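Suppose a colleague, Dr. K., hands you the sequence of a protein chain of 372 amino acids and asks what its three-dimensional shape might be. Before reaching for any lab equipment, you can write down a predicted structure in token form. Begin with the sequence itself:
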Amino acid sequence: MRFADVIGQEIIKERMVHGVRVGRVPHAQLILGAEGSGNLALALAYVQYILCNQPTEKDSCGECSSCKKVSALIHPDVHFSFPFPKKAGEMEQCSDVYPQWRTALQEDPYLNYEDWMQQLNAENKQGNIPTKELRNIIKNISLKSYEGKMKVCMIWLPEYLGQEGNILLKSLEEPPEQTLFLLVGSDLDAILGTILSRTQLVRVAPIDDASLASALQEREGITLDDAQRLAKVAQGNYRLARDLGKEAGNPHLDAWRNWMTLCFRRKMGEAFQWSDDTASLGREGVKSFLLYGIQVLRTCAVLPYTGSEGLWEGPELDFVNKFNTLQLGEGVIGNMVVVLEKALFGIERNGNAKVLLMDATYGLIQAISKKN
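The predicted structure, expressed as tokens, is then:
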């Protein structure tokens, strides 16, 4: 992957390129960004630029043997580690599932943890980065580079290292010469403090609206008006914007409006039918709907302080403005977000959508009833 393939993030791209060109590449870095920001895509482009045989002033060439190997995820000097559900005799270290990893990453460099678990057919099993894999990392970086340049160890989602991650501390602090550790994560609080203290933090901001809208037009074939609207709704999350773009017209707006009406009027009889209809969207559709609702509520929370400038447009903005006339307050809105996040967590783990949606309905009604 080249920097040109990464959506937006121009400032970070320039910093990465400049660091390589002047020979300032910190040996252990944490590239931290929220889901859909492109932190993993950036890391891949960064590695390709570092190992490129004919780099330009702004990007890797994309044509040399090194670029082609990095792009195909088969470069012998690049080792990938990531969470996976351990199965004795089947999946005990990351190299056991490299074929699936290559497929998933080449299809979507903006994937998240749930996408990856689905690729592995993990069902309800939890992924982690086990001790055997960590020992394998130490072994790999102790070997000489195959092609004479830098050896790279990329750890995706270091949040899943657990306490076993302390095994890597010595290697992170004093790696072999010409070795680069790239950790790519999303949740700073879930990463071991001992690891954070040994890495240089690179923060990746949400994608700017203009770049996100342009990508939706070019990559997803979405019209300019819809792309601009979705970019504002998704708030820098390309994955969410892309998923919402699969919905016709205003994504989920009617279903969300109906749900709020049922909750505020406590029409539990009608809520059962609503949950059946919404569950028929399928697992990914329900996830997209819940994420949409979370974005609606978060916009409601900030709108009184920021105004509508730069926020949503059209029907969504009309709804948010009307919704805010209810004066729920930050506390109630925050509790509603917690309810939706709990439902989303259950959906991501293959919970029964109808049951989870009804449970969320009860939870929203309780949250609303606590309005002062």
